[in-house]
Task: inverse folding
């Protein structure tokens, strides 16, 4: 399939009273070649932006009277195929060496003009970019030659003790600006007004070098072969996923009178360690923390019977590797005397990472 790249906007039509480089003999060779070759006739029509069937056929039959059409066709051949393939295309039309050299000489002039125009546009674009950089403009991702390098260790961040609503997923999207010095900040600082405790903490962690990292590598724009750091927009995302375990835990608790803390009864503790889980000791620790952070349980005494659904939690981000978070629990306790019958009541607790 022929790929036609429009050259007619670059190659000017022969001015009135200006002699064409295409001779009558050359025009007749083009006419013959295109009339008996549908692909070349299609190419001729596209080179001149005319109708493929009627108009192209009419002009080709009297091409020696329309040399400007022949000029555009020949230049388009070289524009699309280059010197080597253009040479063979003319050879197939029985152009003489002298005729071919004449076409190639014109093509070289037009190619030089085109390259000069491209270079001029490049310089104008670079000058416009330099002015924007000097003015402190903010660039989008698609304009950068080097993307910002923002990376944190969310495993380290997750060691922080920040209490949050357990039902809140850590699904946060921060629309930020990273300046040319590598400092990160929100594009709209008022966004923080609607942040939860955890969402605000994570934002502070990734932007404040006194808390977390805070300084990163800025994005760059290439100017004259050199990558220049610039201000640019960047989206930072955190996403939490939860996976429910099969079955549930049925545990009994007893409150120690001396420590005033709830303890999992020994037989339940053994069952818990045997429960289907990659790290049962971690599960036990997470459950003890959840019980400790449950205000409803702190008000009660004696023994309690709990029914617990268990979820694994995974936190991922586009600026860090994914990590496993503490388990999430949907806990209920049986209302009524211990060991008897009663309605299961939901329990709420605070959660950290």
Result:
């Amino acid at each position: 399939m022929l790929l036609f790249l429009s050259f007619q906007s670059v190659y000017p039509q022969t001015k009135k009273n200006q002699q064409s480089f295409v001779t009558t003999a050359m025009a007749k060779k083009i006419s013959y070649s295109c009339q008996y070759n549908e692909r070349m006739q299609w190419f001729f029509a596209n080179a001149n932006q005319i109708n493929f069937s009627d108009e192209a056929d009419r002009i080709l039959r009297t091409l020696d009277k329309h040399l400007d059409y022949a000029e555009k066709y020949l230049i388009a051949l070289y524009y699309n195929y280059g010197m080597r393939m253009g040479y063979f295309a003319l050879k197939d039309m029985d152009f003489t060496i002298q005729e071919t050299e004449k076409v190639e000489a014109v093509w070289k002039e037009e190619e030089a003009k085109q390259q000069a125009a491209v270079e001029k546009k490049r310089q104008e674009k670079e000058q416009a970019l330099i002015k924007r950089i000097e003015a402190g403009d903010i660039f989008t991702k698609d304009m950068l030659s080097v993307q910002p390098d923002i990376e944190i260790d969310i495993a380290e961040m997750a060691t922080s003790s920040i209490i949050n609503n357990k039902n809140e997923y850590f699904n946060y999207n921060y629309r930020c600006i990273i300046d040319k010095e590598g400092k990160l900040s929100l594009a709209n600082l008022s966004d923080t007004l609607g942040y939860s405790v955890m969402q605000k903490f994570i934002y502070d962690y990734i932007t404040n070098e006194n808390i977390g990292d805070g300084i990163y590598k800025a994005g760059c724009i290439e100017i004259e072969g050199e990558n220049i750091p610039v201000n640019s927009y960047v989206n930072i995302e955190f996403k939490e996923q939860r996976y429910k375990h099969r079955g549930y835990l049925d545990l009994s608790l007893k409150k120690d009178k001396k420590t005033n803390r709830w303890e999992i009864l020994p037989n339940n503790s053994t069952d818990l360690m045997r429960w289907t889980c990659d790290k049962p000791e971690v599960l036990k620790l997470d459950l003890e923390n959840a019980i400790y952070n449950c205000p409803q349980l702190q008000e009660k005494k004696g023994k309690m019977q709990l029914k617990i659904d268990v979820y694994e939690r995974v936190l991922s981000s586009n600026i860090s590797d994914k990590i496993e978070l503490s388990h999430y629990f949907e806990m209920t306790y049986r209302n009524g005397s211990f060991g008897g019958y009663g309605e299961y009541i939901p329990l709420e607790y605070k959660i950290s990472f």
Notes: The CA atoms of residues 119 and 125 lie 10 Å apart. The first strand starts at residue 138 and ends at 139. Residues 1-10 have pLDDT under 50 and may be disordered. The two ends are 59 Å apart (CA to CA).
